[in-house]
Amino acid sequence: MNVRTTAIAGLAVASLVLTACGREDDSGAGGEAQGDAVAEGKASGTVEVWAMGTEGEKLGDFVSEFEDANPDADVKVTAVPWEAAHDKISNAIAAGETPDVSLIGTTWMGEFAAADGLMPTPQDLVDEGDFFPGAWGSTEVGGTSYGVPWYVETRVLFYRTDLAKKAGWDKAPTSWDELKQFAKDMESKGGAEYGLNLQPGQTGSWQSYLPFGWSNGATLTNDDGTEYTIDSPEMAEALDYYTSYFDEDLSLTRTLDPGELEDGFAKGTFGSFISGPWHTGLVEDAGLDESKYAVAPLPGPDGGMGTSFVGGGDLAVFKDAQNPDAAWKLVQWLSEPDVQQEWYDEIGDLPAVQASWDTGELADDPQLQVFGEQLTSAQSPPSVPTWEQVAASIDSVVEKASKGDLSGEDAVKQMQSEAQSIGTGL
Hints:
alpha+beta; D-Maltodextrin-Binding Protein, domain 2; 2 domains; 11 strands; globular; disordered N terminus
């Protein structure tokens, strides 16, 4: 039942914000609703591709099928380390020396589109409705799509089924009240030291906290992404609920060391936690038998499935691409359901195309199906150029609130004030 997938390193590595400069035709994001349609016929010529991590290592061999179907095309893949990717892409855009197409971390899309570096997605290239809604949302900047989702990840509830049974629970909690009681029972009856591990601030904590806000009806920006809307009763209520786990000693109030979560979950120190598909392998590598834990969708405030975070990677074609037509044809091919499923079989990236989940292991594995179900309601952060800066601000404020230094109401006011000072960049 072990999900073979890769963590999306672009969401975990702090990146510098790109300054839009060095381009004379700097029209910015949102200037075009769609790009020109791709020409009919087969792809031809050289297609230069940048890809990161395992994707960069494996894609070159994988696209041999595309080259067989397009004998006049030659795909050249350059593997780029995730830690160097942001600056490499931003520098290439500024210099006008980009490849044709690249894997782009979802939280970078607004930044690079606003720098006038990306082409709008062509008309009729793919059907937006084929993709998980949150994943497609990561490609849209100012109402225009600048790429196509390639693979996705989302966060669900991991919990020790044996400890839950001991605590009187034969199923996962389905509301916020149930989740709180579940965490309490995992400690008082199940034997866990901490009922639910949540991230108490520091880098990336926004990915843990914001799903509670989204589930409660909160938003981060207005519809066109020009103004922040963080300061709302729904966001404050969600933060008060989130920090109550620290106030009531249901979650550890410090950031865990590497490997501590997996080891603690295997030993029963932590009864449950929220994370992505890569953690199935990590907890089993820590010695936990798959029969002793399960995953479940995040609960909503009043029952039913809540909203989770969706991350992953998008494919985008650059405005300075030498062979944009063939590049978009490659993107289109990589978006076909059977190709997406083959890519999952190759390296474990969860498909962004929903139809890819209808057959094979993705359809048959109950654990994978939980992630697929959660993806139907998952959201991406707003694709605004300044998101990385705003996210860092939210991380800092969440840490203060988790320590009891700020109420939810005061915390979201501070988030709003700092976000307004930064601006959306659109």
